[in-house]
Design goal:
Layout lengths: L1 E7 L8 E2 L11 H13 L9 E8 L4 E7 L13 E8 L14 H13 L5 E4 L4 E4 H6 L1
Parallel strand pairs: 3-6
Antiparallel strand pairs: 1-2, 1-5, 3-4, 6-7
Amino acid sequence: ERLLWMRRAEPPQRGFWAIPAGYMELGETLAEAAARELREETGLALEPSGLRLYSLGSITQIDQVYIAFRASVAEASLAPGAEALELRFFAEHELPWEEVAFPSANYSIQMAYDDIRRGGHGLYLARHDRGELSDQFARASA
């Protein structure tokens, strides 16, 4: 019912809420990088094999690619790292949407909450600069 959010301790958007994220390091797989960033920012130690690919996205005007994973976690073991001021699980109606760090990606967060509500998950391809999101599972079965 809820997604894990961190209140950013670093610019840009210090003090605003964001989904844990970061950059890959040399020699890491995608899942290893996601697991490491999650551990560094939230204290949650998940095995990379426990992460499931959720979406791929790009922001062409700044030459960035985003890869999102999903996993089920317990709240009890949260410990903010140096990049997080605070950690919280928010249901969609609890999230302070006016305090989201990068509102241009809200449509993809909304899709995650929609998936939680319907009890299923797609595999999404996003063009964040255009606000486009398409479910690749739905396209494959069409």
